[in-house]
Specification:
With 101 residues, the chain is mainly alpha-helical. It contains five helices and no strands. Helix 4 packs antiparallel against helix 5. The N and C termini lie far apart (48 Å).
Length: 101
C-alpha cells in the first residue's frame, strides 16, 4: 500500500503525463487520474506460448522483425486449434497470413 506522500507523488506524475499528452481527450482525463485505468505497454508484455490468441495478435504490433515470422506461425497453429467457428477462424487466418506476406 502506498503512503500518502507516495500517492500524492503518483497522482502528480499521472496528472503531469495526462496534461502533456494532448492525445488524451479531455473527457477521459478524470478517469485516468482515478486509477481505474491500467496502462499496458505492448513492448513490455512477455511473449509466451500460454498467451491468448488475441493477445498474441496484438503483440505482433511491436514484435521484432526477426521473431515476427515465427510468432505468426505459432499464432496460425493456435488459431487452427482453438477457433471452432469456421468463419471467424478464416478471418483470423487471413489476417495472420497477411502479416507473413
Amino acid at each position: 500500500m502506498l503512503s500518502d506522500s507516495a500517492r500524492v507523488q503518483l497522482l502528480l506524475m499521472i496528472n503531469y503525463v495526462i496534461i502533456l499528452d494532448p492525445g488524451i481527450p479531455m473527457q477521459y482525463r478524470g478517469l485516468l487520474m482515478s486509477q481505474q485505468v491500467t496502462f499496458i505497454y505492448l513492448d513490455e508484455l512477455q511473449v509466451t506460448s500460454n498467451n491468448s490468441l488475441g493477445l498474441g495478435m496484438v503483440q505482433l504490433v511491436v514484435e521484432k522483425e526477426e521473431t515476427a515470422t515465427d510468432h505468426t506461425r505459432e499464432l496460425i497453429e493456435k488459431c487452427r486449434q482453438q477457433l471452432v467457428d469456421v468463419s471467424k477462424r478464416q478471418k483470423v487466418l487471413e489476417l495472420l497470413e497477411l502479416v507473413l506476406s
